[in-house]
DNA sequence: GGGAAACGGAGCGAACCTATCCACTTCTAG
DNA sequence: CTAGAAGTGGATAGGTTCGCTCCGTTTCCC
């Protein structure tokens, strides 16, 4: 695969510096970074960044494979929890926790446009596992039956919004919002009115997540 | 107050056109409109817009007094409903409904920065009434006791986020999200775990709403 | 009819981004 | 140690988007 000859030692060092700087930068300010930003952060000339990563998308993709891995690990970890509701909550909370500490990841999951293709790949890797978590919670009767997998991205959107706005005030306020929302998702003894509208279709949710934002 | 001499007829006509166009534009695309945008929409030269409204903020303020009135009317209306929980829900839903049809209003309420001062004034006019609605719901035992008035702006934030992202897919998806969230806010028979963290203070919420976003 | 008031929109400067280019530095094979 | 290949940095060209001004022209009103 990697047919090209190895980089010179200094070049390789710079490559790593760029990757590291870009990584930190994306976590701090989000997906919206220019070659110039990266160069400044890496203490390297713009030219160097362009030479090594002519396509910014490729660089970003590289950064995110690893991030998605972290989420996948999270699902696996959640699957180990016996109680299905606890497991589901653990996943949702963990996922949001990751996002809280990584604006780039948040942008990716919430889909602020642009990165569609990346988000789709992530969805394909994570989706099935989440579906399983949801099914378990349904089977155990702990998740209200009229809530579907498709409702979970909505949690992300919602709690992310709180995270975004409240980050600098109380970085943990989103936990409160999440707890309240999850209580709404939880099955309860007393009867409840049916939810308005139909459960969103997977296609719709996908569109929401990759919103072109016009 | 209005000591200046009246405008020439054509000038007055243009002033109205500008105001009308700006109003429609704000409803459609939000607070983030330039003098140029307004001029184009009003079919008027940029210069004219600048001459009449040198300070964009003043123009926008003018547009929003009327919008806030609509919300105040909504609270009053909700107060008439006998069942405290229904009343509260009616207000929250109505408020979000207004926002769904008016992006500018949404921006104002969600506080995307900038318009701080405007949002504060709005809060001062609406806040007390909402507090009353919440107190009624508490007294009747229909609102979970550990949810405070301060938690309601969070609903706005959360559901607005869904609205924003899903508008073009299913303009009513937010209703589903809202229903789920409100179910989380509602008091239930079975015991529940206490919410994590403290109820946010009013000061905190104010800060959240007027987030400088940096 | 004439002078004051208002108009329109070309266009200026600032900010910011992408991308290139080439004189200079650093590496490494021999 | 050295020559020349590989790599570097950052000034700069060129594009876009804004906010705003300025002034030749039009419109109003006495």
TL;DR of this structure?
Two copies of one chain form a homodimer. The first copy, chain A, is mainly α.
Structure in words:
Two copies of one chain form a homodimer. With 214 residues, chain A is mainly alpha-helical. The first copy, chain A, has two domains: 1-54, Homeodomain-like (Arc Repressor Mutant, subunit A, Orthogonal Bundle); 65-212, Orthogonal Bundle (Tetracycline Repressor, domain 2). Chain A has helices at residues 9-29, 35-42, 46-52, 56-79, 84-100, 103-110, 116-139, 152-166, 173-185, 202-209. In chain A, helix 1 crosses helix 2 (35-42) and helix 4 runs antiparallel to helix 5. The first copy, chain A, is elongated, with a radius of gyration of 20 Å. The interface between A and B is large, with 44 and 44 residues. The first copy, chain A, binds a DNA duplex (30 and 30 nucleotides) through residues 7-11, 14, 34-36, 39, 44-48, 50-51, 54.
Sequence-ordered SSE layout with sheet pairings:
The structure is a homodimer of 214-residue chains.
Chain A: H1 9-29, H2 35-42, H3 46-52, H4 56-79, H5 84-100, H6 103-110, H7 116-139, H8 152-166, H9 173-185, H10 202-209
The structure holds a DNA duplex (30 and 30 nucleotides).
